[in-house]
């Protein structure tokens, strides 16, 4: 996060900010994490318990998150990026396998494919939903014979996983959902991750359920969950908590080479406290979105996020608008004290991936190339006060009115 905690909730603002009177001049950061009131006590308890790494809190968080999603198995890990890599490794694909991925994604997802020893194959997006469609997925699959695919819930929009799986010609056990934006989203009443072979979540500072850092894999498959669980901690057959428990032994084996990607009990205790607040935060996100929609809908040159909300529950991780001369609007908003971000700079625009994938591969995603130049994410988080929302709305309105 490149922002300061300058924008406070109403409750915090009355708490004696020594910059009183300066609130009107303060900035509206792009993102500010919210933390439930129970977090501090939970962390202190873990610190006092004498066990701070992966242990009972991690197990309890896995159960709580599985209950929240309605998933059979959850394995908590260090990040969504490592979750993606662990799932790919757990699939035991031949080295160098082609793996479909949107180009419009976070670099961590591309790195996960490369670190697992495979080859990213870029998939273009549908202009309205900002995620790959059945047509773009089938086109990418026709260029290569993919061994696996990562799909992504861009901004909180739940992709139609079965349709894309079929378009790619893959079995469901070869599809990983990058659900970093997914908590709170559902399709036809099924929450993202509830019935997935492998859904990877992020608890990074700016995500819908922040821990600070952290991730999780949700799976309907016991075997996949077991392999990820062993590989999140070096591939050791027993983690130190299980060796420490009564009857535990110092002995362990390494059957597969794993990563150091476990979650600590400190993180897990924060996650457990945060989960209780998540439904309320999702509600606040939806309310802010409704306000933005209403206030921005008639502005010249501004395309609001599309929502084919038929059977779709959006998680509203991001409020992504499209606008010509996007970079100029970013500068105008910054001058007005409003932070923004862009999701994402396509993988095909990054130097290292251009070198690895080659120019021909990077030229396969024309819609992504065009749309990515227009994408802009406005501030959207539960702690964004009504005053902050109004400042975003008036800054955008002002900037676009001056333009036309
Ligand atoms: C944030 C993000 C990630 C990475 O999450 P980490 O937990 O920071 O590793 C992966 N994919 C997408 C789409 C993201 O937005």
TrEMBL record:
The modification N6-(pyridoxal phosphate)lysine is found at residue 207. The active site is at 207 (proton acceptor). Its cofactor is pyridoxal 5'-phosphate. The keyword Transferase applies. GO terms for biological process: polysaccharide biosynthetic process. Keywords: Aminotransferase, Pyridoxal phosphate, Transferase. GO terms for molecular function: pyridoxal phosphate binding; transaminase activity. The keyword Heme does not apply. It comes from the Bacteria. Residues 1-23 are annotated as: Disordered. Pfam families: DegT_DnrJ_EryC1 (PF01041). InterPro entries: DegT/StrS_aminotransferase (IPR000653), PyrdxlP-dep_Trfase (IPR015424), PyrdxlP-dep_Trfase_major (IPR015421), PyrdxlP-dep_Trfase_small (IPR015422). Belongs to the DegT/DnrJ/EryC1 family. This is DegT/DnrJ/EryC1/StrS aminotransferase family protein.
